[in-house]
Design brief:
The chain has seven helices and 26 strands. By secondary structure, it is α+β, with helices and mostly antiparallel strands. Strand 14 and strand 15 form a beta hairpin.
């Protein structure tokens, strides 16, 4: 397997040109602003990599090797010697259909028993990522794992999209099957710790949380934030929620994206079902960096003796906001753990991966994590 990264911008065109082996590239993952790719971008990509499918996912900030960049498109290409890919896209997806589409995509891709892993990318505004992940989990063969993320537009939260061999657009879902001798490892970690008592979700509707322990959710949340409550919703990035199912199992992190002071409610980046329990979470920059390194080490270790050729990084946009000046340090440490692998990715509205700290298991929608997918070939 061979992998590489390159960049494209309207002003400068293609930068650090791709490897000579790129004529055999089967898959291109492109990350950039929603409105960045022009017809010239897709036309030139087809000429450079005629055999490749190009999957574009919007991101507010982008990862190219160990550097955070913007105002360009970052592209990672993969060429497999004994593996192959299949790309499926669904358009005009209604929110209520996300779970059934997730299930159907897995059933389609797993019709070939050589399926090893699915990379999934969705619009980050209209698609219910938690329902989509549940649908995939319900049909996933035992030996197959899933990773990916929701598209982003930075901290604007207005318009995101994905696309295959064409400009990205809202309400789309893309699923990529990796087959044959492809070997994939995943790791997802946040570096957060829970504090305070558990609170029962007594009133919610999807991502809107109305009451905790019978009190307005915003009132409970503000008590913990103290003076920082005046800085909501921005300060909410410092205090996500740990969400635990009443049936047990691993907890997931939910970012608070907004508040409704009149309704006394919180708006989460994913479903917070009634009957679940939540706790506030906090972290430090050191813990966040350590979490990213743990995710990289977990993903790479699953490949065993196989060296990773590509490292896909999907990190929450909230982590970018929190780490700020230390964001490059996080990527430097991840790159060091990955060795010589090509490394690219973006900052997302949500990450799709097995449970935090676990290398296998059904996919969940996460927030505030660094999710790493290490890809190699036997």
């Amino acid at each position: 397997m061979h992998a590489f990264t390159t960049r494209w911008s309207l002003v400068d065109g293609w930068q650090h040109a791709a490897s000579p082996q790129s004529s055999d590239t089967q898959l291109l993952l492109a990350f950039g602003p929603l409105d960045a790719p022009t017809s010239a971008f897709f036309d030139e990509a087809r000429v450079r990599w005629p055999k490749a499918r190009l999957v574009y996912c919007s991101g507010g900030w982008l990862i190219d090797r160990n550097e955070v960049v913007g105002q360009c498109v970052v592209v990672m290409g993969m060429a497999f010697e004994r593996g192959w890919v299949r790309v499926e896209e669904r358009s005009s997806v209604a929110e209520g259909a996300c779970e059934s589409i997730g299930r159907a995509l897995v059933q389609t891709l797993s019709a070939d028993p050589e399926l090893r892993h699915i990379l999934a990318f969705t619009d980050g505004q209209y698609i219910n990522g938690a329902a989509f992940a549940r649908g995939m989990a319900s049909a996933l063969p035992e030996h197959v794992t899933v990773s990916g993320g929701l598209a982003s537009d930075g901290t604007h939260f207005t318009a995101t999209g994905v696309g295959v061999d064409r400009a990205p657009a809202p309400k789309r879902i893309v699923a990529i099957g990796l087959y044959g001798n492809v070997v994939v490892g995943t790791g997802s970690s946040g570096g957060w710790e829970a504090f305070g008592p558990e609170r029962l979700v007594t009133g919610s509707d999807g991502a809107d949380v109305f009451s905790l322990d019978g009190e307005p959710a915003l009132d409970v949340y503000c008590r913990y934030l103290g003076p920082l409550a005046a800085e909501l919703p921005g300060s909410a990035l410092l205090f996500p929620l740990s969400l635990a199912s009443p049936d047990g199992g691993p907890s997931v992190v939910r970012t608070i994206l907004g508040v409704d002071r009149e309704a006394g409610s919180l708006r989460s980046a994913g479903d917070v079902p009634q009957g679940y329990r939540v706790r506030l979470m906090r972290s430090t920059n050191d813990r966040l960096v350590d979490g990213a390194v743990l995710a990289a080490e977990t993903a790479c270790a699953q490949l065993g003796e196989v060296q990773p050729a590509a490292l896909l990084c999907v990190s929450c946009i909230g982590r970018h906001t929190l780490l700020r000046a230390r964001i490059d340090e996080e990527l430097y440490e991840v790159a060091r753990a990955a060795g010589s692998a090509a490394m690219a990715g973006y900052y997302s509205n949500g990450e799709i991966a097995p449970p935090n700290g676990m290398s296998e298991g059904p996919p969940f929608l996460h927030n505030q994590t660094m999710t790493i997918t290490a890809i190699g070939e036997r």
